[in-house]
């Protein structure tokens, strides 16, 4: 069983830990005999896909929403921001609950809440005059639902498989589904909004309902929940875990934030330049945005299949991926031809796609099951910070210091690469 050797600061394999794990056999081992089918993996993968569509699908139609509601660009941006803020705040709470009442008991109600939020948004936009604040409330509800959905998928996958190789491979599929949502979002959002401008709001509860049915029917979760400790004890225990594993855990948190920050900053830049310089909008714009994201998606899938349980390989794939991000980002400063920009952003997308599955696997496999939901949820919360920060910071950089914006992004990515080199020291396969 993998765990983190805190004194040495690297992933290792401990006979002592194996003995401890053997004492916890019995119900744990029996629960892990539950067969995991392709449909169960597909069903779990629907969660990140739905949650990504629920947010990113609105991005290409924000200008239309702004016109229809007669609001400022700042107000319309809050439709995205309030979703992320609520998710950031509540993800750790959802992780705590999932550790102690069960993963499905958190995921399914969260999807229901997200769906209700979509209904509120859709009905308000359809039937109510001056509906902005009601739509914002619906989006806040969706953010609450998002906090208990996708972030809980990572520890759920860790619970369902006995072999670390299977965990890594499935996490690659999960990350691919997450990225696929980003690929489909700009095109799907533009198509649905072309029917009626508020139709994307109504699409969200439909997607949530499909995911709920898949989870109920096909996903069997091993093990049973434990009695949750008092919240004060939970906070103390979480701090203890974070302090013990800080040499590598904080590094992975930081790297995750930076990668998502660069991804969304570059997507914002591409979206902005497509519309303002090349006058490309709607479905055509979505197709261009989907090219680098498609490369990211394919790379995530391949990486998840290749890393297996080799933690040393995970480290070096992550480092190589970040180097590609740096190369692609710096290259943006050397030209503004459309296909040149698409090409170098595709290189950066490949780097991001290579980096994310190893990070998911390292953090999921490196934490004991009892704390897995809480710690991986904190990691997901950190990633949301990168998502929320990327577009506004890129907007400021593009306006104030356009000559240096890409160098700043590359410098931040370089710090993440150094964190991989010096804070994550890993061994290879376990035998």
Automatic annotation (TrEMBL):
Offer one Pfam family short name for this entry: MFS_1
Predominant subcellular localization, coarse grouping: membrane
**Family named by the database record:** Belongs to the major facilitator superfamily. TCR/Tet family.
Major facilitator superfamily (MFS) profile domain spans which residues?
Answer: 40-428
Name used for this protein in its record: MFS transporter
List where Basic and acidic residues composition bias occurs.
16-29
Q: Where is this region: Disordered?
A: 1-29
PROSITE patterns recorded for this chain? MFS (PS50850), SUGAR_TRANSPORT_1 (PS00216), SUGAR_TRANSPORT_2 (PS00217)
Entry keyword set: Cell membrane, Membrane, Transmembrane, Transmembrane helix, Transport
Subcellular localization, per the record?
Cell membrane
Alphabetized CDD domains for the sequence: MFS_YfmO_like (cd17474)
Describe its membrane topology. Multi-pass membrane protein
Annotated source species: Niallia taxi
Question: Taxonomic lineage of this organism?
Answer: Bacteria, Bacillati, Bacillota, Bacilli, Bacillales
């Amino acid at each position: 069983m993998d765990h983190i050797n805190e004194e040495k600061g690297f992933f290792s394999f401990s006979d002592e830990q194996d003995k401890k794990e053997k004492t916890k056999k019995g119900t744990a081992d029996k629960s892990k005999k539950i067969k995991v089918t392709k449909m169960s993996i597909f069903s779990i993968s629907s969660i990140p896909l739905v949650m990504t569509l629920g947010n990113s699908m609105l991005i290409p139609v924000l200008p239309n929403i702004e016109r229809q509601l007669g609001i400022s660009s700042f107000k319309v941006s809050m439709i995205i921001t309030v979703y992320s803020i609520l998710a950031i705040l509540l993800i750790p709470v959802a992780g705590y609950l999932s550790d102690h009442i069960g993963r499905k008991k958190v995921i399914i109600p969260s999807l229901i809440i997200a769906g209700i939020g979509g209904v509120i948004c859709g009905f308000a936009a359809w039937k109510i005059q001056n509906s902005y604040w009601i739509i914002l409330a619906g989006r806040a509800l969706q953010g609450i639902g998002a906090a208990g959905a996708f972030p809980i998928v990572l520890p759920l996958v860790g619970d369902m498989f006995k072999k670390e190789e299977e965990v890594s491979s499935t996490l690659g599929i999960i990350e691919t589904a997450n990225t696929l949502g980003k690929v489909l979002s700009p095109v799907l959002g533009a198509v649905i909004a072309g029917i009626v401008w508020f139709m994307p709001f109504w699409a969200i509860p439909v997607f949530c309902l499909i995911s709920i049915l898949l989870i109920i029917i096909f996903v069997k979760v091993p093990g049973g929940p434990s009695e949750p400790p008092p919240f004060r004890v939970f906070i103390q225990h979480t701090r203890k875990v974070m302090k013990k594993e800080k040499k590598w855990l904080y590094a992975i948190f930081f790297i995750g934030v930076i990668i998502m920050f660069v991804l969304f900053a570059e997507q914002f830049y591409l979206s902005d330049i497509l519309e303002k310089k090349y006058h490309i909008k709607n479905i055509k714009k979505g197709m261009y945005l989907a090219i680098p994201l498609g490369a990211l998606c394919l790379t995530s899938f391949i990486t998840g299949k290749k890393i297996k349980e080799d933690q040393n390989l995970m480290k070096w794939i992550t480092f190589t991926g970040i180097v590609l991000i740096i190369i692609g980002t710096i290259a943006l400063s050397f030209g503004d031809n459309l296909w040149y920009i698409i090409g170098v952003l595709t290189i950066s997308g490949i780097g991001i796609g290579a980096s994310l599955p190893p990070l998911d696997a390292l953090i999921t496999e490196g934490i004991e099951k009892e704390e897995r939901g809480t710690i991986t949820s904190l990691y997901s919360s950190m990633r949301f910070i990168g998502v929320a920060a990327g577009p506004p910071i890129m907007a400021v950089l593009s306006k104030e210091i356009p000559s240096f914006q890409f160098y700043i992004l590359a410098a931040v990515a370089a710090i993440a690469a150094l964190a991989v080199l010096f804070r994550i020291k890993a061994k290879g396969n376990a035998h």
